[in-house]
Amino acid sequence: MQPALAPSRAFRRSLLLVLAALAVSLVAAGPAFADALTPESGGSPNADSIDGLYKIVLAISVVVLFGVEGVLLYSMIRFRKRKGMVAAQIHGNTRLEIGWTAGAGVIVVVLTIITFIKLGAISNPAPTGANGLVPVAGGALVASVGQAPPEGGKGLTVEVNGQQYIWRYTYPGGIFSYEEMVVPTDTTVILKIRSQDVAHSWWIPELGGKFDAIPGYTNDSWFKIPADKAGTVFRGQCAELCGQGHANMYARVRAVTPDQYRVWTTCQKQLIKQAQQATIPPNRAKPSPLPPQACASSVKN
Amino acid sequence: MEASALKLRPRPQITAHEVERPIRGWLDWATTVDHKKIAIMYLVASFVFFLVGGAEALLMRLQLGAPNNTFLDPQTYNELLTLHGTTMVFLFVVPMMAGFGNYFVPLMIGARDMAFPRMNALSLWLFLAGGIVFYASLVFSPPEAGWTSYAPLSDNAYLPNSGIDAWIFLIHLTGISSLLGAINFYATIANMRAPGMGWGRLPLFCWTILTFSVLLILALPTIAAAVTLLLTDRHFGTHFYDAGQGGSPLLWQHLFWFFGHPEVYIMILPGFGIVSEVLPVFARKPIFGYKAIASATVGIGFLSLLVWAHHMFATPTGTAVLIFFMLSSMLIGIPTGIKVFNWIATLWRGTLELRTALYFACGFIAFFTLGGVTGIILAIFPIDWQLTDTYFVVAHFHYVLVAGAVNAIFAGLYYWFPKMTGRYLSESLGKLSFWLTFVGFNATFLIQHSLGLSGMPRRVYEYADVGDWGTWNLISTCGSFILGLGVLVTAYNVVRSVKVGALAGPDPWRANTLEWFTTSPPAANNFDVVPRVRSVEPMKDIRRSIEERTGLPEEISETPAPPAVPA
What we know:
By secondary structure, chain A is an alpha+beta fold. Chain A has helices at about 10-30, 35, 45-80, 95-125, 260-275, 295-300, and strands at about 155-165, 165-170, 175-180, 180-185, 190-195, 200, 210-215, 220-225, 235, 250-255. The longest helix of chain A is centred in the N-terminal third of the chain and has 34 residues, at about 45-80.
């Protein structure tokens, strides 16, 4: 090797120092910026599984990315033209090229396998827990179309309907609400996502991925809020450009205990009836008619 | 003197009855069929569209600089995002690549023009007509359904004004322009290569333009059909995309993305080609693995036709279909990875001359790799369910297209400007431009990954003041203006250097391909003599044989002469 080609010891040492500093700051920054580096989660097992899958993929990606960028940066510094240097006239190296092709292939295979392992927990609805909503006689709350029903057949089906620019939710028994969905905790909530005008996309980040609401189609999704999250409101908004009000098409999911949910449904039913008798159809310009005071206190703890 | 010797020699008499006066000035530009002049017009026009599209982006970033901002109303914002996306895709990146292709494909393969010079001029004028028709909508009502114009939002039930129609005409006009251009490129590369230039000696930039052309020919008819159906839906009572009448909004998405994903590679492949030309020249080394890079280009082109539904992972779609498109999208990472590894191996053990062109080429590799890695993350559909239609995706495709395609375009500009004008671009302004765009770009888009991960959807004109969104968006907005400044520095550099740049000879970089065999700028007929090609690097062979004949030692000749006036 020519002397000019060998990197000086000082250079090697400073490169090591830079790399070490980078590694330390990354490790230190990891927990501090964990929220900025991973998707939202915590409201439902499928969101948690996506988060888990993402973290594994991110770890692999970071290794690949830093490896490639490191070698690139190293070559740019190490091989800049200096006096007496002669460029090696190499045209290729078949063995090396087959090697990194295979390496890239292995990464793809590994990512695929990890995804398949995690997929079940994300796609298939989890069974309703022991403290969840018990179905009324005859299992009227059970979902039956499209998506596989949750194990044990227990769950609450809510139809989500996207409209310019508000979400409408229809619960079993003809109850409905706008913008804010009220759901019992520890209960698998099956969503039937539809649209009545243009394409929208249903998304509450902490409750899992987004699913497009497309006119003429029904999209399936689910979530199950853990029992200790009763009283939490999860927020999201439409994620598909649907017109001028797109930015203000919000969605909320309020988690309540199954008992509170039953009270809420009774109140909401009454309210809808009153509204219909007063011949004021609950139109979409008035989102989520506020329940009377008694009902409100039963829901908001 | 030779000249007087020539005069003394007896010459055959030619009687000329009438000599056509050469057309000069604007009429020359308007009627030219010279591929170089057409290319210059392509490059200038698409650069102007780039500045316009950039200004639109800056307006949007201004609006997003603070939570609940009222600088723009939602209609204007939606119009701007549509204009910006459409301009950058159809009026900037694709015609810019077509411009480089137009100028350099004939020169690189030793041809005297494109195969169909008049059709070439038609391509240019159709592209300009498309841009004019589209921007004419500014005086009535610009489209506001995004560059994807998803049905049924783009149907006249929801957007009855004629902005969408202007968009449809833009797609048709630029589409026909690109289709004719693609046929022209294909015919030129297939038939007009210099003697000895087999497929294994075709410059890598030409390989990418060839693949670009094939993809355009395969993908454009689909979008042409899709927008025609949209036009009949809007005006002639059909219901192709109307679910209420038995049509399907998903049909639009499938047709659009069947074109739209190859389009992404149509935009980036010529960039790969530019980088593959620039790296070996400034590393003073042959490209590492020519065959692997050429076949990876074709492989990416093929796979790009099989990945379209990864834009539709959140639509109602069966799991088997999701898995297929996840696998095909991840597979495309393999040939792309091969390219990145080969480029870095080209730098390895070279002697890098750190000129601006090499800066941009290396910037391309660095950022494109990040965009590629986030692409693999997005290909995993359960993860995509969280990230699609958020700022994470915005960051991803801007890393691929701005940091990728724009860096490649700037690398090409700084590399080929001496050939096109006979003058160097200023190196110091070039490096200033590189560092400004480098800092500005990363400040704008790196933080957007976090915005998306924390739940901010794209295409919203305002957002509430929750979490760190205000700060992060402000960082992004500040970055975008630094990026804009960096682009303006290069624009200024071009305008200035055309007049006062240091003179460059025919082969200022001591490059490898045939465009450097002729004068800078080349004469109308390109070459008086086309040499026989014996390798991928014909200019290197020519220089070597000259050195052998003149007996100059290789040591001296390996050091290129610096520009006379390094401004």
